[in-house]
Amino acid sequence: MTIIQQNNKKILRFYGLEAARFNKGGCIYLDSAATTLMMVNAKEAADRFLEYYSNVHTNAHNKAKISGICLEWAYQKVTEFLKCSETHEALFMGSGATAAINGFAQLMRFNFPSRRMVVISSMEHHSNDLPHRQNFSEAVFVPLSSKGKSAGGIDLDFLNNILEENQGRVAYVAVTGLSNVTGVRTPLQQICEIAHRHDTVVLVDGAQMVSRTRVDLTALGVDAFAFSGHKLYAPGSPGVLAIKKNLLEQLSPIYVGGGIVDDVTTSNYILSSKLRERHQPGTPNIYGAILLAYAMHSLIEYGMDYIEEHEQNLCDYARKLLTQIPEVTCYGCIDNSAGTNSGCITFNILDLPHELVGRILNDHYGIAVRNGCFCAHPYVRSLLQEELWELDADPENPDDINRIDSFKGMVRASFGVYTSKQDIDALAKAISIIVQNKTNFLNNYISSSIPLTSSVSEFNPLKLLSTGNSQYEI
């Protein structure tokens, strides 16, 4: 039995699975980079909490006291999971990493107005790119360390030079921990050392990293770390910003309201003496925080080292199988050694638009993948540039332009703790069949406007939510 099989069986036993305990819904779910499926035992734990649910910010009655204790436990579980209990505070912000990153950008702009430059890697999701451009007058992009179909990584020499030349002007450096496009890992410790040497801080988009690898913010030296609970097996939970206490102490809040003050008069207000509370106005998403914290508790109990090994092995195995299939191009493999990518694999099939491949995998093989540019247009464009240049097209011909547009993207298969080696085998087998029958598939899918399945248009949300029966097969 392989390590993948052993780990997967251990995971299934730990969660009491039947993979249905993750609500896989009958399909082979390879879209975990977009959102992970619900960890059902975490939902059950959060549902048990609802018996005691109340708003916090008072000790006048028992429900409020219990809710406050549980919410405090959730905050502590986040920093325990990220191994930064002594160094960082956790803030719950909005519905995902996007809100947390926007909040950080606004905090830094508001509190450090003389620092008008941000430095951003060229692999970023739009959520770790556009907020910085919107809030700062100058954004510098760090080039990739490799080019073409293997593009990925960060040019550390460029990073060092740009920070040295602009020391005192840079508000922060924004990088991903793990690319949502290719799974390329970022050398966070080296980046933090370079940034700190030049008097600036580092914000990490950890949305892909947090569910796939063991994270130790203290050891890495990361100043701020944003992630989404919905990508950590807890859909409906909040976004999180874990930020160094000594940095947060320097920041006046940008969002104000109830719960952040000790006193208010018509002429003044006094912020809370508690550091975290100054930046958490209003009623928090208490249920979502409990849901996320229990998911983290379960992952800690199981062991993130095992999960990291499981996901790494799946990624290496998928890359090995797909690169052996003729007419399939895989992206972002910086070198041929194992361990350089994790969590996902992106690919295209020669002469087949990426959207069509995704639809065929869904319609004919029950495999859920994602296609497009994954909200990372600059990075995807750099990966595809050579291929798009090679397309034989007349720039004056609208049909040729539309044909090129259909190839501006790729297909991504991404993994979770519930993904098995058998899921990867099914994907590779399906892709092999598609390659062998390209002409038939192209003839069967006449236009991009055809529905995924004939029954999708009849799907009734209210019937599903009211009765649990949608009369719809995934």
Please provide a written account of the structure.
This protein has 474 residues and is of the alpha/beta class. It has 2 domains: 3-30 and 303-373 and 409-467, Aspartate Aminotransferase, domain 1 (Alpha-Beta Complex), CATH 3.90.1150; 42-301, Aspartate Aminotransferase, domain 2 (3-Layer(aba) Sandwich), CATH 3.40.640. It is built from 17 helices and 15 strands. The strands form 4 sheets. The protein has a 7-stranded mixed β-sheet, sandwiched between helices. It is globular. The two termini are 31 Å apart. Residues 1-8, 10-21 and 448-454 have low confidence and may be disordered.
Summarize the structure.
This is Cysteine desulfurase. This protein is α/β, with parallel strands linked by helices. The protein has helices at 3-15, 40-49, 62-81, 97-111, 130-135, 156-165, 188-197, 217-220, 245-248, 286-302, 304-322, 354-365, 377-390, 398-405, 421-436, 438-444, 461-467; strands at residues 28-29, 88-93, 117-121, 138-142, 170-176, 201-205, 224-228, 239-244, 261-264, 269-271, 328-330, 344-349, 367-368, 370-372, 410-414.
Key features?
disordered N terminus, alpha/beta, Aspartate Aminotransferase, domain 2, 41% helix, 4-stranded antiparallel beta sheet, 474 residues, 7-stranded mixed beta sheet, 2 domains, Aspartate Aminotransferase, domain 1
For this structure, the CATH topology of the largest domain is Aspartate Aminotransferase, domain 2
Physical arrangement of strands within the biggest beta sheet? 2-8-7-6-5-3-4
By secondary-structure content and strand pairing, the structural class works out as alpha/beta
**CATH class of the largest domain, please?**
Alpha Beta
User: Sheet with the most strands?
Assistant: 7 strands, mixed
How large a portion of the residues is in β-strands, by DSSP E?
5-15%
Number of domains: 2
What is the arithmetic mean of pLDDT?
88
- H/I helix tally: 17
Looking at the overall shape, the CATH architecture of the largest domain is 3-Layer(aba) Sandwich
Secondary structure: helix percent: 40-55%
**Uncertain ranges:** 1-8, 10-21, 448-454
- How many angstroms does the end-to-end distance come to? 31 Å
CATH superfamily of the largest domain: Type I PLP-dependent aspartate aminotransferase-like (Major domain)
- Kindly state the number of beta strands: 15
**Compute the gyration radius: what is it?**
23 Å
Domain Aminotransferase class V: 28-427
Protein name: Cysteine desulfurase
Keywords: Pyridoxal phosphate
Organism: Methylovulum psychrotolerans
